[in-house]
Design a protein that fits this description.
Elements: E1 2-5, H1 11-21, H2 26-29, H3 39-59, E2 63-68, E3 71-80, H4 88-93, H5 100-105, H6 108-120, E4 129-137, H7 146-161, E5 166-171, H8 174-182, E6 186-195, E7 198-208
Parallel strand pairs: 4-5
Antiparallel strand pairs: 1-2, 2-3, 3-4, 5-7, 6-7
Length: about 210
């Protein structure tokens, strides 16, 4: 398998993979999914949301892919204090205006605030900390240990080469908590997030990295 930066022509493919991988994820299903009457409208939203998020991060060289024989197996977005901060203008520049209807009809502002609350805590550990903003495995390859190999063979060696002392992430399912614990992450915070009366569990996990 190969680990490399994603490039701009891959944005659409990567957003489709991510939207599919997270379609049934509790963070979406228990919150903003409830504001859509029809599944097709929700699917369109997911596609547009990840289009903007991935395009913005590809431009900042924060998006990586794991591939084998020209097939994308996983996508990763990494954050660190040493990397450029993402501004509102960059989101707008990369298609954010298409999201405006969702602010009015689907409480997107409240949903984004919920995401921000979830992400902030583990990123406050230390300046040397790196954070996995996103790790999505191609649905065609789930159950093949791609997630574990991506962490141990690629993400951790990469961030250590950049001087990271710790690696953090969040998740919203007990199944994922178990997965990350098996990969040497420890829970640092557990809380419940609220979206219009709908609640979803949120775990923060960190792995301290040896020199």
């Amino acid at each position: 398998m190969n680990f490399r930066h994603a490039v701009m022509p891959e944005i659409k493919q990567l957003s489709e993979l991510t939207a599919t991988a997270f379609n049934d994820y509790a963070l979406y299903q228990k919150t903003i999914r409830q504001t859509f009457r029809h599944e097709a409208a929700y699917q369109q939203f997911m596609q547009r949301l990840h289009d903007v998020h991935i395009a913005t991060n590809v431009h900042q060289q924060k998006v990586f892919i794991v591939e084998e024989k020209n097939k994308i197996l996983a996508i990763v977005i990494l954050e660190a204090d040493t990397l450029p901060k993402t501004t509102l203008w960059q989101y707008i520049k990369n298609g954010g205006l298409k999201m405006l209807p969702y602010f009015f009809h689907n409480n997107l502002a409240q949903f984004l605030a919920l995401l921000d609350e979830a992400e902030k805590l583990p990123q406050q550990q230390s300046q040397a900390n790196w954070h996995v903003n996103l790790l999505a495995v191609n649905p065609d390859n789930q159950g093949q240990h791609i997630g574990s190999r991506t962490l141990t063979d690629f993400i951790i060696p990469y961030v250590k080469s950049k001087g990271a002392q710790s690696l953090s992430l969040i998740t919203n399912t007990q199944r994922n908590v178990t997965f990350y614990q098996k990969n040497n992450f420890k829970i640092t915070d557990e809380r419940t997030l609220d979206f219009k009366g709908q609640q979803v569990k949120n775990w923060s996990l960190v792995q301290m990295l040896a020199d």
